[in-house]
Amino acid sequence: MERLVGGAGPLVLGSVGLWVMYYLMQRLRLKNRLQDSVVVITGASSGLGKECAHVFHAAGARLILCGRNQTRLQELAQELGEPTDGNRQTYTPRTVTFDLSNTETVAAAGEEILKCYGHVDVLINNAGISYRGSIIDTHVSVQRDVMETNFFGPVALTQAILPSMVQRRSGHVVAISSVQGRIAIPYRSAYAASKHATQAYFDCLRAEVERFGLQVTVISPGYIRTNLSFNAVTGDGSQYGVMDKTTATGRDPVEVAHSVLRAVNQRQKDVLLAGPLPTVAVYIRTLWPALFFKLMASRARKEQRLKEE
C-alpha cells in the first residue's frame, strides 16, 4: 500500500504542476487577447462606459469612444492619451459623436467608426437611459423614446458594424443589459421592456452568427453606482432627478467594468452580475411564476404607499 501511495505521489504532483502551467498560460493568453484590438464603447463619456474605457485602454485596446457629448469624449480621450509608466503599449482613443436615439443617423456613425481603423474587433453597446413611473401616467411617446435609446439604437449600430465582422469572420458584440432584462419590476415598464427586448435580440444574434465565428455576450448587472436613476425619465418625459437608495448603494462601476473585460476575454455568452436576492428572483420567475407575481404586486403596493405618504 505504501509503495502504491509513494508511486502515485509524483504522478499527482506532476498532474497538479501541468494544470497550474496550463492555467497560467490561459491567463496570460486571455490578458493578451485585447492588445491592439479595436474596441468601440457607446455611452463612454460617463458612468460604466467611462470606466470601461479606462479598463480596456489599460488592456492595450485601440478605443473608439462614442456618445452625445463631444466635449466630454474629447476630455476622456485626452486623459487616456497621456503617457503611462506601464509596460503595455496603449493608444490615444478616437471619438465619434452621435445620438444613439436617432436611429436615422446611426448608420452614418457606423461608417465613421469603421473608417477609424478599417474594422471593429469588439462593439460594446453600453449607452442607455432609465425610467421611473406608473404605466397609467406614462405617455406612449416616453415608452417609445426609451426603446429608441436602449433597444433600436444598439440594434441599428450593431447591424451597421455586423457586415464587416461577418466579412472578416471575426468580431465580438457585447450588450450591456440589466437584471431587469430577466425580470420585470413595477414602475420600470419602459426600461424593463427595452432590456427584455435587448436580451431576446442578442440571444437570436448569437445563434445566427456563430457559424461566422463571431461572439455575442449579454451582460446583465444589478444596480450600479452611477447617475442612471438621477438621469432617468418619468412618465411625462421630465428628468427623475433622484438618486435612488438602491443605485447609491449599488456595485462599483469599476468592478463592473472589470467584469465586462473578463467576459470579453473569456468569451462568455451570458453574464448575470447581481446579488443573491435578484439572482433568486430570476430563478423564481422561471420556476415559480405565481410566487414571483405575488411578490411584485406586493412591491407595487408598497411603493405606491410610500409615494402617497
How would you sum up this structure, described in words?
InterPro entries: KR_dom, NAD(P)-bd_dom_sf, Sc_DH/Rdtase_CS, SDR_fam. Belongs to the short-chain dehydrogenases/reductases (SDR) family. This is Dehydrogenase/reductase SDR family member 7B. The structure is a single chain. This protein is an alpha/beta fold and 309 residues long. The chain has two domains: 32-274, Rossmann fold (3-Layer(aba) Sandwich); 276-309, no CATH class. It has helices at 2-32, 47-58, 70-80, 103-117, 140-168, 189-209, 245-248, 253-265, 276-287, 289-308; strands at residues 38-41, 62-67, 94-97, 122-125, 172-176, 215-221, 270-273. Strands 3-2-1-4-5-6-7 form a seven-stranded parallel beta sheet, with helices on both faces. α6 (189-209) links the parallel β5 (172-176) and β6 (215-221). α4 packs parallel to α5 (140-168). It is globular, with a radius of gyration of 22 Å. The relative contact order is 0.11.
Q: Quick gist of this model?
A:
One of its GO terms (cellular component) is cytoplasm. The chain is an alpha/beta fold and 309 residues long. 54% of the residues lie in helices and 11% in strands.
